[in-house]
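Deliverable D5.2: sample structural annotation.
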Amino acid sequence: MYAERASRLAGAVIWTGDGAGRVLPDGCMDLLWNEGRLLVAGPDTRAYVTGGAPSSWAGVRFYPGTAPAFLGVPAHELRDRSVELADLWPAPEVRRLRSRIEKAPDPATALEEIALERATPPDPVLHALVTALDAGRPVAATADELGLGARQLHRRSLAAFGYGPKTLARILRLRRALVLAGAGVPFAETAVRSGFADQAHLARDVKELAGVPLGQLLAVG
């Protein structure tokens, strides 16, 4: 059973679940708690299906581009990876946090409090970039509006999101399409409204990023 709620941390989501299912790229990174372990899930460029026996998970899903400042690690170093928090932070600090969560009545809320305590103000340029790309603005036009050159934008995107702005735009476009299709909008109309050239373009991107056809993906969801 998966459940989520909006966090008190701006743009973040707090979630709980049993760890089973297909995980799709979303431009985000997560701080995770699982059976006494603190982990970090880096930004994904492709879907993956979780395996093993179901267990209790809790997580903070950070707003795109904000987790690296919290972690002190560029996002591209964690691309398509999950690592122990102790690989990134001093072991004594992680042990203290682990003990704190174990004693808390609700691990998800404890994770949220840790994130709130260590949060830094979001970078307004990165926030504007995500907002523009999520609205379907072209990458080149967005870079011009933000006063960034192509190389500078790519460099900042790698550090913040784990990949370049075109990949981020593609992932955000997929997320828009899934919301529309999941609400019952016909696939052809979903493609146009999400910014795809046509339904065939939508189908190709879904298969490449999610690993299964759109209809199968929605049926599972």
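Annotation notes: The longest strand covers residues 13-17. Residues 165-182 form the longest helix (18 residues).
The annotation will be released with the project's public dataset once the embargo ends.
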